[in-house]
Design brief:
Layout: E1 2-3, H1 10-14, H2 41-52, E2 59-62, E3 66-67, E4 75-83, E5 86-94, E6 101-103, H3 123-128, E7 136-137, E8 144-150, H4 155-171, E9 176-182, H5 192-205, H6 207-220, H7 229-239, H8 244-251, H9 254-269, E10 274-275, E11 277-280, E12 283-286, H10 291-314
Parallel strand pairs: 8-9
Antiparallel strand pairs: 1-10, 2-4, 3-4, 4-5, 5-6, 7-9, 8-11, 11-12
Helix pairs in contact: 5-6, 5-7, 5-8
């Protein structure tokens, strides 16, 4: 599992799952919270730097605290952490008395610490994933979507990609859709951005050939370098019938790099710090996962979706009439 460096020491802080502790008390109904407690922003910023081992160069800014929809009785407190050109917004839950914080998103395989008991527990994460227009394979209406944040230069991504491509659609031809999302860790991978740009340009010409490109890059990964990538890509694209002139224009388009940067920022905003990271119907799974373990996750999702659908349909009443129900 490859991780990028926000700052050499900052990544330690991003892995902290919970800051402080929060207790709801024994009341069945949490106390009504309408106004956020007064907080000393300078002191709280220093506190977070200490807990997370962030150096003074890291900027900590607090946005307005609002009544939390995630945890009633608490307040949502967005905190923007930035260093240089890199910025991450983390959501914290602030207790009514302002004395305790809980991170609403954890830097572990599950990716969160607070769960809504009513409804699907990963609905919020699923809604935040920007999947429209991204390369996908499998039925659009599949009950399970596996969204993969990946980096073409990442060795662990290469291994996971082979697992997914070898097993996913053969095991679930009509039940699973896989979506590829760019998360090139350019601080540690010097040709990952080139590969992401090329992938976008291939996808613009042919959705099917993107997956040929996807497999080719990961197969050739050990032999690719920053210096030889363009030559190898031109040779591959020629053999696969792609328009070289159109590819060249696309690769020079600043909008392509901007789109990849936006995808990278989306990953940061989701709390991601490493590749590969998958979301199975919104359930975050970080790191390389063997097929049997991933299959258990998918089977669990299929069972959950089927049970939820059955629950919705179980209690309807139909009456005879001239119109079909």
């Amino acid at each position: 599992m490859r991780r990028f460096q926000f700052l050499p020491i900052v990544i330690l802080g991003l892995a902290m799952a919970v800051i402080g502790s929060a207790r709801l008390g024994a009341q069945a109904t949490p106390p009504k919270a309408e106004f956020p407690p007064e907080i000393n922003q300078m002191e709280l910023a220093d506190y977070l730097r200490y807990v997370n081992l962030w150096p003074k160069e890291v900027s900590v800014q607090f946005e307005k605290a609002t009544p939390s929809k995630l945890l009633p009785g608490f307040f949502d407190l967005p905190v923007k952490i930035s260093a240089g050109h890199t910025a991450i917004t983390q959501m914290f839950l602030l207790s009514p008395d302002g004395k305790h914080l809980v991170r609403a998103q954890a830097g572990d395989r599950l990716g969160k610490t607070v769960f809504p008991v009513e409804g699907y527990p990963f609905a919020a994460e699923q809604a935040r994933l920007k999947l429209d227009g991204r390369p996908s394979i499998g039925p659009a209406d599949a009950p399970v979507t596996v969204a993969v944040f990946s980096d073409f230069q990442c060795g662990f991504c290469r291994e996971e990609a082979k697992i997914l491509r070898s097993n996913l659609l053969s095991a679930y031809p009509d039940k699973v859709r896989m979506v590829f999302l760019d998360f090139p860790l350019t601080q540690i991978h010097d040709w990952s951005q080139q590969a992401a740009v090329a992938g976008r340009c291939v996808a613009a010409q042919s959705a099917e050939k993107f997956w040929l490109y996807h497999d080719w890059v990961f197969d050739e990964q050990p032999a690719i370098s920053k210096m030889n990538f363009n030559g190898k890509f031109l040779e591959w694209s020629g053999k696969n019938g792609l328009d070289a002139l159109q590819l060249g224009r696309c690769q020079q388009d600043p909008g392509i790099n901007a789109a990849i940067t936006a995808s990278f920022q989306d990953a940061l905003n989701l709390g991601l710090t490493s590749t590969p990271t998958m979301f199975v119907n919104g359930r975050q799974i970080g790191g390389k996962l063997e097929w049997q373990a991933l299959k258990q996750v998918i089977d669990t999702e299929l069972e959950y979706v089927a049970a939820a659908k059955k629950k919705e349909e179980c209690c309807s009443v139909t009456l005879p009439g001239i119109f079909k129900q």
